[in-house]
Structures are given as structure tokens and as C-alpha cells.
Amino acid sequence: MAVKTVHVHLKVNGKDVELDVPPNERLIDTLRYRLKLTSVKEGCGRGECGICIVLVNGLPRHSCLTLTAAIDGAEITTLEGLAPEGKIHAIQMAFLETRGVQCGYCTQGFIMMAKALLDKTLDPSYEEIKEWLSSTLCRCGSYHYYFAAVKLAAKYIKEGKIYFDEEEVKKKYYMRVVGR
Ligand code: FES
Ligand code: FES
Predict the structure, then answer these.
(1) Can you give the pLDDT at residue 173?
(2) Which atom of ligand 2 approaches the CA of 141 most closely?
(3) Is the dihedral of CA 162, 52, 135, 145 positive or negative?
(4) H-helix segments, the chain
């Protein structure tokens, strides 16, 4: 017997997408495997680690706990949608510059939480940052650095520095690694 599917229309990273999905398909699988947005990763698969967080209608949501068929009409933002082609968003830049990224497995979850927080306020208190970042786990223990990254990102955005040139950033970090 053919599997029944549900027709959904989403806006993903600014693009209209129409899909036929099984009613029990999780958003994480739609984004990662159907749409090839590989920043969206799975950790625990049960709402605990926060690594799969994406923005749905501007708010952070665990994509492992969300059924795609249940959010017909939603706007979704993943890490890939933070900056236009060839640019890096201020939050990504701040995460690079504060050097907290170790294995990097958790980083997209933290960046998406930071985006949701900074969309709400560019002057988050210590307690607010702690609360928002606490929904994601970092096995490498980079919390302190990620905290600093949120502060730095807020500063950049307030100064009007929303996007950075990707090629310039690559050169800067390449030079830092090779020492010339
Ligand atoms: S994979 Fe979704 S919260 Fe861990
Ligand atoms: S940098 Fe490794 S889990 Fe966070």
C-alpha cells in the first residue's frame, strides 16, 4: 500500500518550497536529507541537546521534535540562511573570533539560539544569555566562549556590521593558521 503523504508549503531560508512528506516525517529529516541543509544535525533526537535547533517563524525550535506536516506555511531559517552568498553573518563572525569552536558539532545550535535572542534584544543581560544558551549542550565545554560570542555579535550588529566578506574572513583565518 502506498504511503500517504501530506502536501506542505514552507519558506526555507527565504525560498518557497513545496513538498509531499509522510505525516510522521520530522523537520530535521526534511531539512537535512530532502533539502540538503547539512548544518542541521542530530544529537540526542529527543529535545535535550539543542543541536538541531532552527528558527521557525523567528523562534527557536527543536527540529527533531517537530513534524514537518504540522508546520505547513511556516518560515524556517537554518544556519545556511543567516547571510547572503559570499557573506558571513555578524554572529558567525563573533563565534569565529572568540575561538570557542572546538569539534564544532554543537555550534549551529548555539548560533541559532544567539540569532533568536539578538533578534529580541541587542542588550541581553548575563542571565538572559545564560538562559537562552542553556538549551544547547556543548560536550567540549565552550560555554564561556560562546557567551563572549553573543556579546561580541551584539556589539557588531549595534555598530551596523551585520555581514562580513567571506573571502576576507577566510584569508584572515588562513593567515593566522599558516603564520604569514
Ligand atoms: S537532536 Fe534535537 S534536541 Fe538533540
Ligand atoms: S565544540 Fe564540541 S560539542 Fe561544542
Answers:
(1) 78
(2) 4
(3) negative
(4) 27-29, 90-97, 107-120, 126-133, 143-158, 166-178
Q: Tell me, what's the pLDDT at 178?
A: 64
pLDDT of residue 132: 95
Domains contained in the chain, CATH given:
6-81 (3.10.20.30), 87-178 (1.10.150.120)
Q: Which ligand is nearest to the CA of 110?
A: 2
Average confidence (pLDDT) per 10 residues, the chain, 180 residues: 89 98 98 97 96 97 98 98 96 93 94 97 96 94 95 98 94 69
Nearest ligand to the CA atom of 146:
2
Question: CB under 6 Å to ligand 2: residues?
Answer: 101-106, 138-140, 142
Cα angle 175, 177, 180 (rounded to 5 degrees) comes to: 40
**Cα distances (angstroms) measured from residue 132 to each of 25, 56, 111:** 27, 16, 11
Ligand 1 binding pocket includes 42 (Cβ within 6 Å): yes
80 lines ligand 1 (CB under 6 A): no
